[in-house]
Amino acid sequence: MNTTDKKETKMKEIEVEGQPAPADTKSWFEYSWKLQQGVPERLEDAAKFLAVMISLSLTIISTGLGQFKEIVFQPVFILIGLLLWLAALFFAFMVLFPRKYRFHSMSVESIKSTHARIIRKKQVSLFIAVVCYFIPFLLLVVFFVFSL
Predict the structure, then answer these.
(1) Euclidean distance between CA atoms 29 and 32, whole angstroms
(2) How far apart are the first and last CA of the chain?
(3) Banded model confidence at residue 49, pLDDT cuts 50, 70, 90
């Protein structure tokens, strides 16, 4: 017996019997795949919304700067708040900024790991943007409460 006959014999021994998955199971797997593949788009949508909110906040704060000077004890805190909002805007744009991601187009594992890396980078940038956005609000609330 030569080696090809041995391989064919082994292939016949490995036959697996089974039934196709139910239709609802297949649809849930497809939903799960689409959900996972759509994560970067949803993160980008959240970053767009956050960028709009940051822009509105900067506009409101810059027009009422005179009133905020009365509430805030040290003017340096206003500067820190404005810088944090600009940092938040920067990190929100980093979520939207297209980057070069390298992967092997013939390797599913390479594509999956690149997709996971894209998601991780976008999540970290969005998280930093959200934190930088809310810190000035907390500062304003603290100063407002102490000014009462």
Answers:
(1) 5
(2) 95
(3) very high
Maximum Cα–Cα distance for the chain, whole Å?
A: 95
Q: Per the structure block, which two tokens stand in for 25?
A: 């199971």
The alpha helices in the chain, defined as continuous H runs, are 3-13, 23-37, 39-63, 65-71, 75-96, 108-147
Query: What pTM does this model have?
Result: 0.74
What pLDDT score does 5 carry?
57
* Rounded CA separation 130/88 (Å): 7
- Contact criterion met (CB below 8 Å) for 72 and 78: yes
State how far the alpha carbon of 34 is from the alpha carbons of 6, 37, 53, in Å.
Answer: 42, 5, 28
Enter the tokens of residue 125. 């940038």
Question: In whole angstroms, what is the distance from residue 62 CA to residue 82 CA?
Answer: 9
Look at 58 and 6; give whichever has higher pLDDT.
Answer: 58
For residue 7, what pLDDT band results from cuts at 50, 70 and 90? low
Yes or no: say if 141 and 59 are a contact pair by the CB < 8 Å rule.
no
